[in-house]
Amino acid sequence: MSETATSGTSGTSATAAPAGGAGSATATGATIELEDLTKRYPGSPNPAVDDVNMEIKAGELVIFVGPSGCGKSTTLKMINRLIEPTSGRIRIGGEDVTDMDPVKLRRKVGYAIQSSGLFPHMTVAQNIALVPKLVGWSKSRIKDRVEEMLDLVGLDPGEFRGRYPRQLSGGQQQRVGVARALAADPPVLLMDEPFGAVDPITRDHLQDELIRLQHELHKTIVFVTHDFDEAIKLGDRIAVLRERSHIAQFDTPEAILTNPADDFVSGFVGAGAALKRLNLTRVRDVEVRDYPTVTVDDPLQDIFNKLRHGHTNEILLLDKRHRPYKWLRRGDLMRARGSLARAGTLVHDTVTRDATLRDALEAVLTDNAGRVAVTGRRGAYEGVVDMETLMNSVHELLEADRLDALEHQHDLEEQRAEQTHRAQEGADATGEERA
Amino acid sequence: MNFWDYLGTRHQQLLTDAFQHASAVFQCMVVATVIGVVIGVFTYRSEWAGSLATTTTSTILTIPSLAMIGLLIPIVGLGVAPTVIALTLYGLLPIVRNSIVGLRGVDPSLVDAAKGIGMSRTARLFRVELPLAWPPILTGIRVSTQMLMGIAAIAAYASGPGLGNEIFRGIGSLGSKNALNQVLAGTLGIVVLALLFDAAYVLIGRLTIPRGIRA
Ligand SMILES: Nc1ncnc2c1ncn2[C@@H]1O[C@H](COP(=O)(O)OP(=O)(O)OP(=O)(O)O)[C@@H](O)[C@H]1O
Ligand SMILES: [Mg+2]
C-alpha cells in the first residue's frame, strides 16, 4: 500500500525536493521495541501503564488511540524517557536505551506536542536551529537546514524565518513545531496530540501534510490522539489502548474497522464504519474517468462541434493552465450567445489524487450533477470521478474487506483450536500443575 | 539665600554626593541581582525552599534601616561596608520573589518541550527558563532600585557615601538658614536619580527583552 502511495506522490515530493538536494542523506526510521514497560506514579495504587509489550517497525507510523487518561502520553513519554519507566526495557533500532543518558537519547528522537511548544522568545529560525546547535552542527549547515525544514513543512523561509511564534497562526506554529522536531534528522518522531488544538480544517491540512512528509522521509512515528478518525487517516497501524495502556487491538486501520477485537474496540470505532472505510482509500486507488475537455484557447467552432457530436451532453472547459474552469452543457453556449465568459457553470470543487474517497464523496454529493474533477500538479485536470465510480469502488472495497475478515477469523479460530489442543495435551501430560 | 543660589554655590559637592549615591545603589543592585537570581534558581523548584527564601528576604525588609545599620556598625565598622551590606540585603526581596514567580510561571509545556528536544538542565535554564522569566525579574530589579534609592540616604548615618549626608547635615542644623535648602537638595537629588534610573531600566528592558515576548 505504501509502495503505490510513494510513487503517487512523486509530484509533491518533487516540489519540496530542491532543499533536500543539499546532499544531506536523511535518516530513515528505526525500530522501537517496548518490553514489559510499566509506570507506577508515586502515590497511586494502580500503575498508569501496565506491562506494555509492543514492536514498532522501522518507518512505520503507529497511532496510540484510547480514552482520556488511559496512559497514552505516559507510554509515549517513556520512549524518550521524559518519564522514567518503573520497570521494563525500551530499545530503539535494537539498542537498549533504558539506561542511556536521557539528554543524548532525546536528541535522536524528535518530539512534537499539542501546544507546538515553540519558545516564544526565539524566532522561527532559532527554534528550528536549537537541536542542530545542541549537537554541534556548523553555522552554515544549520542555516541551510532551517531553510530546508521550512520548505519541507510548506512555509516560505523568506517570510517566516524571522518571525516570532506569536506572529504565526496555530497551524503555522504546529508546522514549525514539526520542523523543529525533525531538524536534527532523528530516526524516530514522537507526537503527542500535535493537531489537537487547531480547527478542523487546519487539522485536515496538517494531517495531509504529515502523510506527504512521511512518504518522503520514512521516519518511525508514534502519534498519540484520541480522535479515531485521525488515527484511521494517518496510521499504518493503530494501537487501541484501554485503561493502564493495555493494548486492546494493534492492527491496521482496515482490520480494526472490519474486524474489531472486542466491544471496547467497536465502541471506539463508533458508528459508520463503512463511511470511515472511505477515509482509507484515496482517489488514486479508484478508476478516474476521462472526460471530454476543451480549453479556453480552442476556437469556438471546435467547442461547438465537440458539444454537438460528443457522447456526453456536457464537456469540461479548462483554463489556459489546464485547470478545470467550467462545465459546459449543450445549449449553454447558444444561450450565452457564444461568449465563453458567460456560458456554463463554474467548477466549484476539485479533488487531488491524494484526497480520500470520503472527500471525493463529499464533493460529488454537493455537486448538482454528481461528479467532481480530479486534478494533479498545479491544479491541472486529470480526470473525473462520479457517483457511479464511487459506488462501485465502495462495494468492491467492502466485499474485499469482508473476505479478509473472514480469512482473518478463520486463521484466529485455527490458532485457538491449535492452542486448546496443545493445552489439552499439555494438561494430560503434566496433570493439574498446568491448570 | 534661596534654593537656587544654594544649588549654584554648592553644586560641586552635590554632584559628588549624587554620583556616590548612584554608584553605591548601582553596585549594590548588581550584587543583589546576582545573589537574588541565584537564590531564585536554586529554590523555585521546591515549594518549601521557595517560601523559605521569600519569607527570609521579606523578614529582612521589616527591619528598620536605621536599626539595621546600627546593628552592622559594631560588626563591620563605619563607612562603606555597612552601607553595602544593608543595601544588598534590602534589595534582595523583590528580586528573589520575582525570580521565583517568574521561573515558576514558565509554561510547563515549554519546559517539557525543551526537555523533549534534548536540552540539558543548564541549557534549559539559560536558554529557556531565565529568558522567559526575565521580564518579571527586571521588574523586581526596578522595584528594588527605587527602594534602595531611599534607603541609601540612611547610610550617611554610618558615615556612608551619598546624598544622605546633605539631608543629615540639614536635619542636624535645623533652624540655621541653609538647613531647609540642604534637606531639600538631598531629597530632590534622590528623586531625580530615581527617575534617571527608572528611565535606564525602560531602556534596558527594550534592549534585553526579546521582541517575541515584549508586552
Ligand atoms: N505526574 C503524574 N503523577 C501522577 N499521576 C499521573 C501523572 N501523570 C499522569 N498521571 C496519571 O496517569 C494516567 C495516565 O495519564 P496520561 O497522561 O498518560 O493519559 P493520556 O492517555 O495521555 O490522557 P489524555 O488523552 O487525557 O491526554 C492518568 O490516570 C493520570 O491521572
Ligand atoms: Mg495525553
From TrEMBL, chain B:
Domain ABC transmembrane type-1 per the UniProt entry, residue ranges: 18-201
Membrane topology: Multi-pass membrane protein
InterPro entries to which the protein is assigned, alphabetical: ABC_transp_perm/SBD (IPR051204), MetI-like (IPR000515), MetI-like_sf (IPR035906)
Top-rank lineage group of the source organism: Bacteria
Transmembrane regions listed in the UniProt entry: 24-44, 65-93, 183-204
Subcellular location: Cell membrane; Membrane
Entry keyword set: Membrane, Transmembrane, Transmembrane helix, Transport
PANTHER family for this protein: GLYCINE BETAINE/L-PROLINE TRANSPORT SYSTEM PERMEASE PROTEIN PROW, OSMOPROTECTANT IMPORT PERMEASE PROTEIN OSMW
Family label: Belongs to the binding-protein-dependent transport system permease family.
Protein name from the UniProt record: ABC transporter permease
